[in-house]
Amino acid sequence: MGDGTEDAGAAPRRWAHRAFERIPTGWLVTAGTGAALAATAAFGGLAAVATPVPVVAVGDAYEGAGLEMTVLSASLSDDPRGTFVAPEEGERVLRVELDARNLGTTPRGTVNATGVDAVRIDGGPDEDPWVSRRDDDTTGVQLQPRVGAPLLLTWIVPADAYHDGDELVLLLPAATEHDLTLSAGTGWQLDGVGARVTLVVSDAGDAP
């Protein structure tokens, strides 16, 4: 005001300004970050941050879905012998050798069992592999408790999908055991991908 009289709110405003200037900068940054995280979480932003999937090397064991799984190799072939699949013209057989051990106390199947049958190829067919034993070419494999089994996982793929020397990423499942509601016993609920394994594909040509 022109007469030198200070308005009633001027002194409190000056006090608040000086008090704000005395707050350490680090406190302001921390408070701002906390507020931003709270807002992000409220709108589901934090839930969208994916947890990295573990990477397992070829030949190393992975434990998940009640099994110990060790991926050994991947190969292409035109010969379906020992695989129980029948590729047509323009298709080939993709084999993955995998050792599995049942970590449970009861036998575990390999069909609709959310175990080795839930293994997938990243970017490949979204379907269960055909599972058989490598040592005797039998299918309908039952994994006995604490006993290892040499398995062969087979898919039919387009002939031009993979080539010798290509990298292939295998997705191993994670699953949780639960009690069945309509019958006695337990089942397995797929939780998603538990680990990734990168293999180099070899081409066996006409050999099985």
From TrEMBL:
Region ranges (Disordered): 117-137
Protein name, per record: DUF4352 domain-containing protein
